[in-house]
From TrEMBL:
Key word Membrane present: yes
Protein name as it appears in the record: Ferric-dicitrate binding protein FerR, regulates iron transport through sigma-19
Transmembrane segments: 100-120
Taxon lineage: Bacteria, Pseudomonadati, Bacteroidota, Chitinophagia, Chitinophagales
The FecR protein domain, residue ranges: 134-221
Annotated Pfam families: FecR (PF04773), FecR_C (PF16344)
UniProt domain Protein FecR C-terminal: residue ranges: 260-321
GO molecular function: sigma factor antagonist activity
Organism for this UniProt entry: Chitinophaga eiseniae
The keyword Membrane appears for this protein: yes
InterPro entries linked to this entry: FecR, FecR_C, Ferrdict_sens_TM
């Protein structure tokens, strides 16, 4: 564990007042506002629980009961240190163990988030798969198949124990899900996508400000912090804007995508999904250029790039060896 990360963990464990700091960091993490250093701290903090925090996993059920009591007296989820102090007061009034305070506060704040899933999963049974420079196919324990795009990764329970088949995704992937009584859930950033059996793709790269979900077959339900934000059928797409929380939906017809003033960032993420490439730009403002028109996935990558770049006065370069596309201003 990194020295800075270990010091942060020690501070959290050794000083109760630092709980405020931890909860604020966790909320920033969930809102996509944490810096790279803060994300590393949280990962180190979680890793420190591998052997010493069985109490958190074992006490999860009771912690959920505590949170139910707390929710009755709170107007919403924790928003920062002020709300946390109110929770602390009520927990102490219940004379609960400090460890259960941690569990209750974390469960209340995180809901069904990716970090809660990591905390409550038993240690030592998770599988992590990372795609390299090109796409990678992953056979999941239930017979489902994930096609990872270049540079993407997934993490999942090796045996899919429990009443949900859950996968943590960073990047882009297509999932061909085997029908099963237990729902299949993909957690990607702030969103969770739940299905029973279908084929769909998700784009959730950490360096972009949007998450897109496209259903090729079947039906999926998309949620944010347990609130449903959309139900998609075959050939539907949902695009979630992380900074604003805006949700856009549109339908794909006859292998075409209709773009209505979409940013190049959103469009390039789609092309990356179709052709297995990652996109880079010499100037971040390039990705904020917009395009209105149709894209046909039967056309070649070069044909689509030529159209998009000509309209926006941009040059492009395709590196087939590393499977990267570089965009530059003319």
């Amino acid at each position: 564990m990194a020295v800075v990360g270990q010091l942060f963990v020690n501070q959290i464990k050794g000083c109760y007042m630092d709980n405020d700091h931890l909860l604020i960091l966790i909320e920033k993490y969930l809102n996509g506002e944490a810096t790279a250093t803060e994300r590393k701290w949280l990962e180190n903090w979680y890793a420190s629980f591998d052997n010493s925090a069985d109490w958190l996993r074992e006490g999860a059920a009771e912690a959920m009961e505590i949170t139910a009591e707390l929710k009755q007296s709170l107007q919403g989820k924790l928003a920062g240190a002020a709300q946390l102090k109110a929770v602390n007061k009520q927990v102490f009034s219940l004379r609960r163990n400090r460890r259960l305070l941690w569990a209750a506060a974390i469960v209340l704040l995180l809901g069904s988030s990716v970090l809660l899933y990591r905390l409550l999963m038993p240690a030592g049974i998770m599988e992590t798969v990372v795609a390299g420079a090109g796409p990678r196919t992953v056979a999941l324990p239930d017979g489902s198949v994930a096609l990872l795009q270049a540079g993407s990764s997934i993490r999942y329970d090796k045996k899919f124990n429990g009443d949900r088949r859950e996968v943590l995704l960073e990047g882009g992937a297509q999932f061909n899900v085997t029908a099963h009584a237990h729902p299949f859930v993909v957690s990607s950033g702030q969103l969770s996508t739940c299905v029973l059996g279908t084929v769909f793709t998700i784009q959730a790269y950490p360096d972009t400000d949007s998450i897109s979900i496209t259903v090729l077959e079947g039906k999926v339900q998309v949620s944010k912090q347990q609130q449903v934000i959309g139900t998609l059928g075959s050939e539907d797409r949902l695009v979630y804007n992380i900074p604003t929380g805006a949700v856009a939906r549109y339908h794909i017809q006859n292998s075409e995508v209709q773009c209505n003033n979409q940013t190049l960032q959103e469009i390039m993420a789609l092309l990356g999904q179709w052709y297995g490439y990652t996109i880079q730009a010499s100037d971040t403002t390039i990705l904020q250029e917009r395009y209105t028109g149709s894209l046909n996935r039967h056309e070649t990558l070069e044909e689509l790039l030529a159209i998009l770049c000509e309209v926006n006065h941009i040059n492009y370069e395709v590196d087939k060896k590393s499977r990267q596309i570089m965009l530059t201003r003319k």
